[in-house]
UniProtKB/TrEMBL annotation:
One of its GO terms (biological process) is phosphatidylinositol phosphate biosynthetic process. Belongs to the inositol phosphokinase (IPK) family. Keywords: ATP-binding, Kinase, Nucleotide-binding, Transferase. It catalyses: 1D-myo-inositol 1,4,5-trisphosphate + ATP = 1D-myo-inositol 1,3,4,5-tetrakisphosphate + ADP + H(+). GO terms for molecular function: ATP binding; inositol hexakisphosphate kinase activity; inositol-1,4,5-trisphosphate 3-kinase activity. This is Kinase. The gene is ITPKB. Its EC number is 2.7.-.-. It comes from the Eukaryota. Transmembrane segments: none annotated. Gene3D superfamilies: Inositol polyphosphate kinase. GO terms for cellular component: cytoplasm; nucleus.
Length: 396
């Protein structure tokens, strides 16, 4: 029953505990023996867990793009991107299908001021006849993490992709189908008659329906604590819609939100100092938001497959409008908008430290006050026998 205390319901709490304590008193002799046995088991389990490496956390949830669950058998899919791009590796690492461009970027980032904000890179390896980039599993230290992927910038295609597609403007029926699934009214009369669109047309249309064009970033997908995935953000376009998505993602937890904000501000300041960032066009890269029920929260820069170096001597500002030919990506503009949205969301909470109803530590503190439990008791380490005796005494 020890674990009932942190999850105590606020409604009818007095009545619930009064009835429970009456039962404890009535059956005290047999209960005390059971509680002592439970206490020993919990202490032993905790000591064993603490002796293990943090990379081997019990019941760790692994889910892509940087995590996957073996026990729950979540499929190897990316939150945003192509399925089958990742494999498990040893020592808290993952394998991502090799991409020459991404390898070059990760190599350079390991010697750049941005290194603390990107997954540590450990070179390329061969596995099952295929080549992979090996990097840290960013979610190895999280317990049942919630994950959000935000695609940064005002476009997710390279200028050369657009130019190449225009040279061979083949009609694509698959892209027409994707377009009509999102917005049946999007195709022109001619496109409806052909039941196909060109790739340049589709690429440019795709950016206009989301917040990519209006805010400089878009939400690609969210994975919740229970493993459910939501990728229905293709038409999430307004500031209000994005704010609501983040509010739901953090479940009103201001502590998590503030951790995200601090991390984003750190990334923003570091980008200004980064030689790598100044001389690269950053396209299709994401910010990966990760938090768990312990209120651990971090943001990482990921996905550099379309990040390309500029000609020698050329630099980008990353916060001015894109005009075809200038290669501007709008990364900083999007990041500034993201920081502003989360800052306003934090301010909307007022003086409340957290609106997260599932905060077990807060419930434990409230229970200690309710039953006058001494501060020497903690939720993680305490003698069940002593706590039982204390509760019996205070209710006599």
């Amino acid at each position: 029953w020890l674990y009932f205390l942190p999850v105590l319901k606020e409604l009818d709490a007095d009545l619930i505990w009064a009835n429970r304590l009456k039962f404890f008193k009535k059956n005290s002799h047999c209960l005390l023996q059971t509680l002592d046995q439970t206490s020993q088991q919990l202490t032993t389990a905790e000591d064993q867990a603490q002796s293990k490496s943090w990379r081997k956390i019990k019941n760790m949830v692994h889910w892509s793009p940087f995590v996957m669950s073996f026990k729950k058998k979540y499929p190897w899919i990316q939150l945003a991107g192509h399925a089958g791009s990742f494999k498990a590796a040893a020592n808290g690492r993952i394998l991502k299908k090799h991409c020459e461009s991404e390898q070059r970027c990760l190599d350079r980032l390991m010697n750049d001021v941005l290194k603390p904000f990107v997954p540590a890179y450990h070179g390329d390896v061969m596995k099952d006849g295929e080549r992979y980039n090996q990097m840290d599993d960013l979610l190895a230290e999280f317990d049942s993490p919630c994950v959000m992927d935000c695609k940064m910038g005002v476009r997710t295609y390279l200028e050369e992709e657009l130019t190449k597609a225009r040279k061979k403007p083949n009609l694509r029926k698959d892209m027409y189908m994707k377009m009509t699934e999102v917005d049946p009214d999007a195709p022109t009369e001619e496109e409806n008659a052909q039941r196909a669109v060109t790739k340049p047309r589709y690429m440019q249309w795709r950016e206009t329906i989301s917040s990519t064009a209006t805010l400089g970033f878009r939400i690609e997908g969210i994975k919740n604590e229970d493993g459910t995935v939501n990728r229905d953000f293709k038409k999430t376009k307004t500031k209000e819609q994005v704010t609501e998505a983040f509010r739901e993602f953090i479940k009103g937890n201001r502590n998590i939100l503030n951790s995200y904000l601090n991390r984003l501000k750190g990334i923003r300041a570091t980008l200004e100092m980064s030689p790598f960032f100044k001389c690269h066009e950053v396209i299709g890269s994401s910010l990966l938001f990760i938090h768990d029920k312990k209120e651990q929260a971090k943001v990482w820069m990921i996905d550099f497959g379309k990040t390309t170096p500029l000609p020698e001597g050329q630099v980008l500002q990353h916060n001015v409008p894109w005009v075809e030919g200038n290669r501007e990506d709008g990364y900083l503009w999007g990041l500034d908008n993201l920081i502003q949205i989360l800052t306003e969301l934090s301010q909307s909470f007022g003086g409340k430290e957290s609106l997260h109803n599932g905060n077990e530590q807060q419930k434990w503190e409230k229970a200690k006050q309710m039953f006058k439990i001494p501060t020497t008791f903690t939720a993680s380490k305490l003698s069940c026998y002593s706590l039982f005796m204390h509760l019996r005494d205070v209710t006599d």
